[in-house]
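thought: fold this chain, then report.
action: predict
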Amino acid sequence: MALRCPLCESSYVRRAHRKGVLEQLLSAVYVYPFRCQLCTHRFLSLQWGVRYARQEDPRQYERIGVRFPVQFSGPQTTGKGIVTDISVADCAIETSLPFKQGDVLKLELSAKTGRPPIIVARAAVRSIRPGTVGVQFVEVSDQEQARLHRLVGEMVGVWITPVSHPPVPSTAPAAMEEHSR
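observation:
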């Protein structure tokens, strides 16, 4: 039987990195952390007899290859690009415009023709490669987050009712300023 998220019952889960001594010890008896790729819930599960190799990919969420337009705007730039892969927490954008790590953008993801774009109020640039930037979604309304979860679910063939919960902590400079107020 496939491993399922205890919160949304999705089978689209991925083993997460172990955090702390307790999770290191639990892995000795085959209890590992997992993260649902749709509702973002993190949980532990017994995987009797299964040993996992150390994960090299630092991402918490698996990205899905796509190609759809995006418009972005920030204090220093406005432009268009193509989303080349996406998860519920981040995406990669093909663009020729220059960015710096930490730049904050508003995104309008036009994933479905004939439907309004999914709005990401704030996304932080996390990685830069020639012609591509990786952005993490920092601020997304509950309604837009639900639309994003449905989009990713449809892309992997898993349909869920998204569960509302606190967002994943961010290290974006603007987000850190808000927490210190």
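thought: worth noting. Residues 165-181 have pLDDT under 50 and may be disordered.
final: tokens above.
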